[in-house]
Amino acid sequence: MTNVVGYARVSKRDQNPAAQEAELRAAGASRVFVDQGESSRIADRPQWRACLDYLREGDTLLVRRLDRLGGTERIIIETLHDLDRRGVNIRSLTEPMIDTTTPMGRALFGMVAVFAQLRVDTIRENTMRGLAHAKAQGRVGGRPPKMTPEKIAQARRMRAESHSLDHIAAVLSVGKSTVARALAKAEADAADMRNNSHG
Questions:
Q1: What contacts 80, CB < 8 A, 6 or more positions away?
Q2: Is residue 11 flagged as an active site residue?
Q3: Domain-by-domain residue ranges, the chain?
Q4: pTM over 0.70
Q5: pLDDT in tens, 135-170
Q6: Pick from 44, 39, 42, 49: which is nearest to 7 by CA?
Q7: CATH class of residue range 4-120
């Protein structure tokens, strides 16, 4: 007889996982592993690790929803592929198409996994294309720089007038280290330009 193992997770410590656990036991889980207050974006959760160690080939992992396995599509897909390689079935209480214990469920699951992987790959490809385009336009990903060319020019003028880094940082509403880095880079760039002009 197939050994059915349940896994439940709630993200916050003050959330009660009892309802999830009761549903899983009512659906046939002989043992339920529960993570409480663990982030869905972390794959290395204590009870999830214990659950994976406990599962054996031929067992069925039972969850209320696939999102209990992880908070990102990448984590979920990697988890599903890993379980499939180990010969562990998976069944979701609220997603009937996710049931690899039946031939039809396995076929549907395969299609879902393919489309989910395609979505992840497309998002990654679009992100890389966007970063490449931004780089080609002279921009880089992330937050805009705190020190604009105007602020750098003002900082250099103030520094030339012997103002302290603390004073310059306060006037420009940035951190002292930000000013120091910007001035050091500006000085290095100026030195490079002087050397190139002499060369």
A1: 66, 69, 90, 109, 113
A2: yes
A3: 4-120, 149-198
A4: no
A5: 776 665 555 677 888 888 898 988 888 888 888 888
A6: 49
A7: alpha beta
